[in-house]
Design goal:
Helix content is 42%, strand content 15%.
Length: 330
């Protein structure tokens, strides 16, 4: 075990902090969403420490431009980087990407399901799913399960979720808002809860083969994820968080830098002990405490809602997801 594996990291830790002294030579990694923000930094940090990284993105031209530093750092650090076209909002694209990876045949040591959208206007993916649930959860559900045979013993899946899972549990009776009024933050919450539940169920299915899965909250970071928010909404939300924190005698909300935000994904993927993070939700480079479903407190208080890590609930979501995508995964 490296010294990094037993050090304690926290909210201010960066990707370089958690990977200091770690060699990832010989490791192969898939990271989705490498056209901006956390995905770019996650890929860069891993490749800079010797990993061979496949970066998936909906817009290859945008990703090519965004990942210039990833390639440069990979060359300096002995790693490698390549791009894969993937549109998570189109299952034909997801299946084609999985087919290309399976045809290539090279195994993975880590998959980081990082890509996503947040608080979008009401809409649908190409397959007719509500945009956020379809993109953030179902796209990754199909991709990861279709390439599960490429995950070697000792590998991990890291699903990038959010403290936004506190906005809502999944609604398996009405995942597409056909019978309930659409709210962009409720939809986001449902999709982020689904990311956690998927990790719980995937971990349960694969840990006997030495494959573990975890979900992570990266923290609040200013990235392109906020592009769908109306002007002033983010500032209003932060002001509300700070007012609540002040009333409770707590420090104000602080945004993380992108390297700080990507640190928990990297930590859970290659630094933390597999048994420590497998089947769990992590934040600030540690496993989060489970809080009750009706616990008071805001998004800045930490912890994971009990509904998001309930294994029975996770199995129900798995079955519903299979039904929705028309495909069964053992």
């Amino acid at each position: 075990m490296t010294q990094n594996a037993i050090q304690q990291f926290g909210a201010a830790s960066t990707t370089e902090d958690v990977l200091r002294g770690v060699s990832l030579a010989g490791r192969r990694v898939l990271v989705t969403g490498v056209s901006a923000g956390l995905g770019v930094e996650t890929a860069r940090a891993l490749a800079a420490h010797g990993a061979s990284v496949v970066g998936a993105a909906r817009n290859p031209a945008k990703a090519e431009h965004a990942t210039a530093q990833v390639r440069a750092d990979a060359e300096k650090g002995g790693g490698a980087f390549g791009l894969l076209e993937l549109d998570l909002a189109d299952l034909a694209s997801v299946r084609a990407a999985a087919d290309r990876l399976n045809a290539d045949g090279r195994p993975f040591d880590l998959v980081i399901a990082n890509a996503g959208v947040m608080a979008t206007p009401f809409g649908h993916t190409k397959d007719g799913f509500e945009t956020q649930f379809g993109t953030n959860h179902l796209g990754h559900f199909v991709l990861v399960n279709r390439i599960a045979g490429l995950l070697r013993a000792g590998s991990r899946l890291v699903n990038v979720s959010s403290a936004g899972h506190r906005f809502s549990d999944v609604d398996l009776a009405d995942p597409g808002f056909e019978h309930t009024p659409y709210d962009p933050w409720v939809a986001y919450g449902r999709s982020k809860t689904a990311n956690i539940l998927f990790a719980v169920a995937f971990d349960a299915r694969h840990r006997a083969q030495g494959i573990r899965a975890a979900a992570v909250h990266p923290g609040g970071i200013m990235t392109e994820l906020t592009r769908h928010l109306p002007a002033g909404e983010l500032e209003t939300m932060v002001a509300q968080l700070n007012a609540q924190a002040a009333a409770e005698g707590k420090p104000p909300f602080q945004f993380k830098t992108v390297p700080q935000g990507a640190a928990t994904s990297v930590w859970a993927g290659v630094v933390a002990a597999a048994d420590a993070v497998g089947g769990h939700y992590c934040e600030d480079c540690h496993v989060a405490k489970v809080v009750s479903n009706d616990a008071q407190g805001g998004l800045n208080d930490g912890g994971v809602r009990a509904y998001a890590v309930d294994p029975v609930h996770a199995e129900a979501l798995w079955a519903k997801s299979e039904e929705m995508v028309g495909e069964r995964f053992s």
